[in-house]
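Table 4 source record.
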Amino acid sequence: MANTYVDYTADPGQTDFAFNFPYLEDEHIKVYINSIEKLQSDFSISTSPATKIVLNVPATGGETVRVRRKSQPNDDLVDFVNGSVLTESELDRGYRHTRYLAEEASEFASVSLELEGVLAGSQIEDGTVSTTKITDGAITEGKLAAGAVTTAKLGADAVDGTKIADNSINSEHITNGAVTSDKISTTDTNFNVQSDGKIGIGSASPDEKIHISGTNASLRIDSGTNYGDKSLIILCNQRTHIESEIIGPTAQGDTNLKLKTLSGGTLADRITIDEFGRVGIGTSTPNESALLDVSTTTGGILFPRLTTTQRDVVVPYNGLVIYNTTVNKFQGIANGQWVDLH
């Protein structure tokens, strides 16, 4: 039987816990609930009709309550000086203090073994372990059991961008289906996904499947690290077949930009721009002596058709050519004046 403590399993609403071991000072009486020491202000000591501690807040039931005597070895309860009269009460008080310390040391040596092993969650009161009591790096992945930290144990917005190191979340840390469209903003202007599947980049209200908007907005697709390996492909689909295609350089050494359209089930070259800026219409190899090379056996070039009134609004640049529908003549600008071309 213990001489310096007594244990209880608390009943719901219980506040009183009796003890019968002797003590010298009220501050030598300590109360522990689930191994957590309570403050002296959390309880009081009553000596009538029996000695007991009284909790200010009743137990909820099931807690382990220990009432213990813990004398203070550094406190001199009796101070003898030269010429002191040695009274029986003072001698007894000094002796009892020494005896109590010896009893507590002996029993605590065995009681302390109870604290070894795993500390259950029920033995830790809410709020007793704060972040200030945990040193940096003290809790590592190896000290957390699998599944120990769940989303239910994390407060709302507890993990924000400032608590996630750069590049710490990669594909292997994201489970299949973890990132879905409903987890992406529908209002963020920089990037959003609407409920109908439309994606807005620079637009909070996309009106196309992919809507890119903004000053100097552009789309760039790189397929390699070398200049010659970069390509841009835009497909314009109608029903189930490709109607047109824009193709940039697709292989090392290929420097042409091409526009193709469907002809007889096959995509055919329509416009080609080579590395020197020469444009070929109807040919994929523009003539090196021409900036614009139009090649066809089924038609010609149709110049802009303006009336005289419409023509006179145009800024007269030398070399400009039109067909005047008022006089039915080709006309051009020479030395700042409109002249008929014969």
